[in-house]
Amino acid sequence: ITSDIFHIPGVDAVIDGHDLPFAANSLKGIVMTNVLHHLPQPRAFFHEAERCIQPGGVIAMIEPWVTPWSRFIYTGLHHEPFQPDAAEWEFPQTGPLSGANGALPWIIFQRDRTRFEQEFPAWQIRHIQPFMPLRYLVSGGVSMRNLMPNWSYKAWRGLGNSLNRWE
């Protein structure tokens, strides 16, 4: 089931991550791309996911992460807030896409990992893989406009991989 907070072409359902419309234990997993850092009440999402996902199920995410490179990109070139020093996980909801903290995944799963593990013992963090966001940028991730032709992907991937040592 593909979903978004808006009805757009190719999306099966409009869903709010704080109030999932699924029966208990009905999902094997949830895959999210650039979602968690837009959820003003992430605890509500994790509780809902725990209710909906079968035991042994997973949540897989692609999210911003805090690195020297990402601080430069997300504070200088991106329009969304990026606040690694935020004291709390929650932030004011100002609209479906205007409220965010790009540093939230890092805050929850790195800085406050012990707190996450204590509050959500049903969830086990299995793998975190930071990666250089160069391909994300040239793919149009910030502007939603692809800046690279499809045939050039392998070259961008090679360049991104060679830059990973600076992360």
Q: Mind explaining what this structure looks like?
A:
- With 167 residues, the protein is an alpha/beta fold.
- 31% of the residues lie in helices and 13% in strands.
- It has 6 helices and 4 strands.
- The chain has a two-stranded parallel sheet with strand order 1-2.
- The longest helix is centred in the first third of the chain and has 11 residues, at 42-52.
- The radius of gyration is 17 Å and the shape is globular.
- It starts with a strand and ends with a helix.
Descriptive tags:
alpha/beta; two-stranded parallel ribbon; 167 residues; 31% helix; 4 strands; 6 helices
Write a compact overview of the structure shown.
With 167 residues, the chain is α/β, with parallel strands linked by helices.
Helix and strand arrangement:
Blueprint: E1 3-4, E2 13-14, E3 27-33, H1 42-52, E4 53-62, H2 68-76, H3 104-111, H4 113-119, H5 134-138, H6 153-163
Parallel strand pairs: 1-2, 3-4
Helix pairs in contact: 3-4
Report how far apart the termini are: 34 Å
Q: What portion of residues belong to β-strands?
A: 5-15%
Summing up helix and strand content along with how strands pair, one would put the structural category as alpha/beta
Number of strands: 4
* SSE pattern: EEEHEHHHHH
Mean pLDDT: 86
Strands across the major sheet, in which order? Answer: 1-2
Low-confidence residue ranges: none
Q: Mind telling me the C-alpha Rg?
A: 17 Å
